[in-house]
Amino acid sequence: MADHLDQSAVANKKAPVIEPGHTFATVTDKISAIVLTRPISNGWVVGFAAGFMVTMMLLFALGYLFLKGTGIWGINIPIGWGFAIVNFVWWIGIGHAGTLISAILLLLRQSWRNSINRFAEAMTLFAVACAGIFPLAHTGRPWLAYWMFPYPNTMNYWPQFRSPLIWDVFAVSTYFTVSLLFWFIGLIPDLATLRDRAHNKYSQMIYGLLAMGWRGSARHWARYESAYLLLAGLATPLVLSVHTVVSFDFAVGVVPGWHTTIFPPYFVAGAIYSGFAMVLMLAIPIRKIYNLEDFITDRHLQNSAKVMLATGWIVAYGYGVEAFMGWYSGNRYDQTLLWNRLHGPFAFWYYMLLACNLFIPQVLWFRKMRTSPVWLFLISFVILVGMWLERFVIVVISLTRDFVPSSWGMYYPTRWDFMTFFGTIGMFLTAMFLFVRILPMISIFEMRTLLPEAEVKPE
Amino acid sequence: MKTLPIYGTMAEFDSAQHLVDAARRTHEAGYRKIDAYSPFPVEELADAIGFHKNNVALVTLLGAITGGLAGYLMQYWIAVVDYPVNVGGRPLHSWPSFIIVTFEMTILFGAISAVFGMLALNGLPMPYHPVFNVERFAFASKDRFFLIVFASDPKYDAQGTRQFLESLEPRSISEVPS
Asked: Which residue range(s) make up the domain with B157?
C-alpha cells in the first residue's frame, strides 16, 4: 500500500507521507529516542516552566473563585454565560480535530494520518480536560457537580433528561472516555516497544505495566485491529454528536441568534476548523524541534491547510445563513440581533471575527502559503482567535440584547475571566510538554505499516 | 541445575513476507498450536496460522445494545415512573428528548466493550509470558518477526520440529523454556 502511495505521490508531485530511506529500525529508533535517550533541553525546561506557572495562575483563579463565588467573573443577569461557556465551546471544538484525524480519516483510509494521529489525540484529551473545567466552575458549586449524573440518592431527585445541559453531561463525558480509550489502545503496542528499548529499570517497569504484556501475537493483532476499527466506527458518529449537542445548548433555547437549525452542522465544521488550526500550531514547532520533518512532511501541512479551507467555507456559509435568515425571517428580534452584530456595542468583535475566520484564511488558496510552515502557523493562530471570537459573539451579543430593551445589559469580563482562560492554555501546554517527553508522540507501529517492506503478498 | 520444561521452539525471521510464508508452510505441515509475532499488524498472518475469525465485533455489538437499552429504559423509568414532572401537561414519555442520552450510552458501552473485550479475549494484562525468556524476542517490538510451535502441539517433538523450522531458513532458532 505504501509503495502504491509513493507512486501516486510522485505522479501528483505531492510530498510523500514518509521520506524515503526509512526502515522498521530507523522509524522505531528515531521516535523512541525522543522519549528514551534524548537529554532534556533548556528549551523544554523553559517552555514547561512557563506553562506550569500559567497553570498555577489557573489554580489561583479557580481557588479564589471557589472561595468567593462566580460573582468575581463579569457575569450577571442578563449575561449569565460569559467567558465560561465561550471557552468551553472553544476548547471542545479544538478537541474535535483529534478525533477526526484518528477515527474518520482511518475509516477513509487516509494513511497520512498515521504520523499525526497520536499527538492529535493527546491534544483532544487535554483540550476536553480544559473544556470540562469551565462548566464545572460555572456551576458555582463544583463540589456538587456529581448531582448532574443519575444516581440513586437520599434527596429523592433525578436529573431532567429533557434538558440540553444534561445531554451535554452525557455527550462530553462519553467523548472524554472514548477518546481516552482510543488513545490508550493505540499506545499499547508502542508502550511494548518502549518497554523493550528502555535501559532504565524504572522506565522498563512503568512502560511494562502500561503495555500489559503486549507481545505482538498474530491472534492479538487480529482482535486488536477489529477493536481499533470498531472504535473508529463508534467515535465517528460520537464526534459529530458532541458538538451537535453543544450547539443544542443554544439552539434549543429561544434567545434570538441561538434558535436556529443551522447550528449543529455549523458548530461541527467550526470545531474541525479550529481543531486543525491547533494541530498545525502544535505540529509545526514539534517537527522542527524534534527533527521530525521526515515523518510530518509538507504533505501533512498541506492536507491540514486544505481541511481548514474547506471547513472555513462551511463556517462562512453558516454566517451567511445567519445573516440571511435574520433578514428573511421577518422576525423583528432576529433583525434587531443582526443590526446589533453589525452596529451594536460589540460590532468591532464581529468584524474581527469575519476578518479572522472568513477573509484572512483565504490566503490558503495559494500553494505557497500552504507549504510555508511559518505562514501556516500564523494563519492557524488567526483562525483560533477567530473561532474564539465566534463563540464570544454568539454568547454575548445575543444575551446582552434580547427581547425587551428594559432587560438589556452590558458585559465586561474581569481579570479573573482572563486569568482562568489563559490559565487553561497554560494547563494545555504543560500537558503537551509532558506528553512529548513521556510517550511516543508519533504512532511507531502505524508508521511501520507505511513502509514498503511492510507489504505482504496475498496467497 | 534443574532444566526447565520446554514451552516451544521459536524461529526468527527478517521480514513480514518471510514470516507469513513460513507460517503458511508450518500450518500446512500439520502444526496447529502455533503463533506468530510481528511488530505491526499483518493482515495475512492471522490467516496463515489458521486464525480466521474473532469475536470482538460480537462483544462490541452486545455491549452497544446493552448500553442503548439501559440508557433508554433508565430515562423512561425516571421520567415516567419514579420522578414524573408535569410541564404544562406535556407527555411524560417524551421519547424524542431521550434519543441523545440513549445514543451516547450506546456509544459508551460499545466502546468500553470493544476495548475491554479485546483485552480479555487476548488474555491481557499478562505481564509474564514464556516467550519473553528468549532474549532476542525484545526485537519483536522493533523489526524482527517470530514464529513459535508450542510444545503442546500433538506433532511437536523437540528434534523434529527444530529440523522442520530450519528448513524454513530462519535467521535463528531458539528453545523457549516455560
From this structure: 6-38+146-177
- What residues of chain B lie within 8 A of the CB of A196, using their CB? 138-142
Task: Say if strands B6-13 and B172-177 run parallel, antiparallel, or are unpaired.
Answer: antiparallel
Q: Which three three-digit cell numbers place residue A151?
A: 444516581
**CA separation, residue B134 to residues A126, A197, A217, A446 (Å):** 39, 15, 15, 25
Please, which residues 243-302 of chain A have a Cβ atom closer than 8 Å to chain B?
245, 248
Give residue-wise pLDDT tens across range A102-134.
Answer: 888 888 888 888 888 888 999 999 999 999 999
Query: Rounded to two decimals, what is the model's pTM?
Result: 0.91
- Stretches in chain B below the pLDDT threshold 50: 1-2
Determine, for residues B79 and A453 on separate chains, whether the beta-carbon distance falls below 8 Å. Answer: no
Q: Is residue B17 part of a domain?
A: yes
Whether residue B140 is contained in a domain is answered as no
Q: Give pLDDT tens digits for A232-282.
A: 999 999 999 999 999 999 999 889 889 888 999 999 999 999 999 999 999
Predicted pLDDT at B7: 86
ipTM of the complex as predicted: 0.92
Residue A322 belongs to a domain:
yes
Q: Which of B20, B40, B129 sits opposite A448 (nearest CB)?
A: B40
Residue whose C-alpha cell is 506557572: A53
Q: What is the pLDDT of residues A413-424, one digit of tens each?
A: 999 999 999 999
The answer to whether residue B138 is domain-embedded is no
- Residue A212 belongs to a domain: yes
CA dist A183 and A180 (Å) reads 5
Residue A168 lies in a domain: no
Question: Over the stretch A14-52, which tens digit does the pLDDT of each residue have?
Answer: 677 888 888 888 888 888 888 888 888 898 999 999 999
User: Is the CB of residue A93 less than 8 Å from the CB of residue A119?
Assistant: no
Q: Which of B118, B119, B126, B150 to mutate to test the interface with A (most CBs of A within 10 A)?
A: B118
**Total number of domains constituting chain B:** 2
To the nearest whole Å, the CA of B169 is away from the closest chain A CA by 18
Start-end of H helices in chain B: 16-28, 43-48, 56-76, 99-121, 158-166
